[in-house]
Amino acid sequence: MRSGKLIINLVVVALLAMLVWLNACTSIFSPRNTFIQNKQKVNLIGNTVNLNLNLNKDSYLLRIHYVSKPGQYEVIYFNGAELVSSVKSRGTQKINYLILPKQLVKQGQNALIVNFLKEPPSSVVVKIQNYYFKFFDSGYVLFPDSVDSFDREVVFNLGQYKVVITRIFFSQLFFLLFILFLFFSFARKMIKKSLKINSNLEDNPYKSYKIEYIGKIILVGFLVSIIYHLITSICLGFHYPHYTFLFSPGGRFDDLLLQCRLAKLPNFFQINNYYPVANIFLYIFSFLPKLESLMLYLGLFLAGFFYINASNLKMKDKGKYLKNVFIFFCLTYPLLFAVDRANIEIFMFIFLYLFIYFYVKKRFFLSTIFLFLAIGMKGYPAVFLVLLLSDKRYKEIIFMFLLIMISVLAFQKMGIFNWNSMISGFNTDVYSFTMNNNLVQRGVSLYSLVKLAFIQFNVINSVDMAKFLSVYLKTVFCFFVVLAGYIIFFEKEFWKKVALLIFAMLLLPHMSADYKLLHIFIPLFLFINTQKKDRFDTFYIIMFGLLLIPKDYYIFPKIISDSGTSDISIAIVLNILIMLAMTFMIVFDRLVLQKIKTKLTTGGKL
Q1: CA distance 507 to 477
Q2: Cα–Cα distances in Å, from 429 out to 95, 98, 279, 318?
Q3: Which residues of the chain form CATH 2.60.120?
Q4: Which of 105-114, 359-368, 384-393, 487-496 has the lowest mean pLDDT?
Q5: What DSSP string describes 112-165?
Q6: Could you tell me which residues come within 8 angstroms of residue 231 by beta carbon, excluding any fewer than 6 positions away?
Q7: How far apart are CA 246 and CA 567, in angstroms?
Q8: Are the beta carbons of 129 and 61 closer than 8 angstroms?
Q9: Which of 28, 182, 303, 592 is the most buried (most CB within 10 A)?
Q10: Would you identify the CATH topology of the domain 38-158?
């Protein structure tokens, strides 16, 4: 009987793998009739770039890259009309995003002028991408084109979409196989060990119930999403973002690869937008070639994430155990999105998980070290100091502050920490998300939700976004103080304390990308392994399951994300509302329902 179940599970796995492969193929074999062929080589003369673009009558996205200098700014004209750009910075790199609307594009020759009024850059890269609308302007696609830059020259090349297969040298192939061998060897040993342990486990039907139902929600949600994207891409002919729930394919793994490039600059630690521990971490990976660095980076994380899943999902039934480990490890949106971006957040998640793991084991000083490493990567895990405060771990709090002070002094002395730059936001404009434009981060910040509403209801231009950001930050700080007070004085259940802090960490900052949803696994596993039953457990099961599945079934056509495309979906709204609903239910249950229950039990008046 069990062998039959195992065969069924293997067949399901094979079908899922085939669906994933087919979904990936739709991004390769996209219609090619939306592309043009044109190649021009233009010199940067004085302060001006002049390009004559041979375009079809369509819409396009234009990107202009250069190294910025103090006081530098530019005016951009297309066919005589001045265009307003959305600007984002990556260290010293400045990128202007401009939409070339269909009404301005002529059939054939089109004049583009970029006039640098102050401090022209030493080199410029100009890139244009097809901006293709389909069905009620509900979505568009941006395909990568090849552009090269040499000093003050711009090589402008628009070509048909090609599948480029990078040549893998023998050394890279050997390294790849070595990493895969280590990973699968580790996975095999872990599963074998877990199966032995599981055979000796006492059956915990309530834990199995929670795992099974969350697993079913993830499996169904993933399958429905894959089928939906296959239909919209193959049958209806839609393009990005309609053929995937992930980020723009042209930017895959960029959060690591771009950082490794920046790490080769002499002033990397002063210009990079991360905290010192993250910078050191990325700097180490920059010594390896690109493929080796990426494989080792993702291999280490996936091995750790696999271990976390295998150790938290232990069940007596081996078939169900293997099935659910596969589902939680391979089919969840936060994991797939985080791997697709290769952001340093994946290792911050590992550190936070280890903090909670050793905290539960009552090894408090060791757990504090991992919390320090997480804070040293991206600051905001400092919210977990509230957890230490709620449990009166004052020695650990003092130890934490000593670690921070010593590290700040040490890093500053070594030249890898710039306090003034960090306080000023690393001299970036936070990708223009705070400006009066239609640019919204693809993430789970309440600020993104409010700005999305401003754009949808056409009031964005009547709001001073700089002042609004100031009010927003003060408001969420006050809210967090109230939430911290609730956690310290009222909440008793550990998994709920952690969940509230994770939700605050995701929702309250004005920048909070989708890969941060990976942290949901921490309260999820605590919830799964808790022995105490709760009247709202079914509600929490459904909410956790919904947070882990793709939900991009409607795209907001007027809004552009940090990918430079219109891929902001209803999933942003739903994820935020789900976390708010869970926060409300946890607080409401403790402050209202349990109070009513206590009074009814003791015969008191309501």
Answers
A1: 12
A2: 11, 17, 20, 51
A3: 38-158
A4: 105-114
A5: EEEEEEES--S-EEEEEEEEEEETTTTEEE-----EEEETTEEEEEE-------
A6: none
A7: 9
A8: yes
A9: 303
A10: Jelly Rolls (2.60.120)
